[in-house]
Amino acid sequence: MSGSTRSSADLDPRRRKILFRAWHRGMRETDLIMGRFADEAIAGFSEAELDEFERLIEVLDRDLLGWITGEIAVPENYDTELYRRLKAFHHHDKPIHV
Fold first, then answer.
1. What are the pLDDT digits (tens) for 35-56?
2. Angle, in degrees to the nearest 10, between helices 28-41 and 47-57
């Protein structure tokens, strides 16, 4: 089961693939992090942002989750404007699965 609240009907094939991949990473917590952000933002991504988001999708779940929670320092080459938007999108005043 996905968790996506967004239809992909209005998206081009590349965005559809990225949206699917964002919701099917492997670890449920990172599915929620990437998927919810993608639901909200993917339609407005530029080509460069799509490239960057695809690169973030390839990061290991444990690393991405550690970056988002602040348990692991974000490597400089991933500390991009898009990553900061992803991190800011998720507020940590409640559990991630809510």
1. 999 999 999 999 999 999 999 9
2. 170
Residue 6's CB is within 10 A of a number of other CB atoms, namely 17
For residues 61 and 25, is the Cβ–Cβ distance under 8 A?
A: yes
Q: Which of 46, 67, 47, 43 is nearest to 56 (CA)?
A: 67
What pTM does this model have?
A: 0.84
How far is it, in rounded angstroms, from Cα 44 to Cα 25?
22
Q: 62 CB contacts (<8 Å, ≥6 apart)?
A: 27
State both tokens at 10.
Answer: 């209005």
CA-based R_g, the chain, Å: 13
Structure tokens at 38: 């993608």
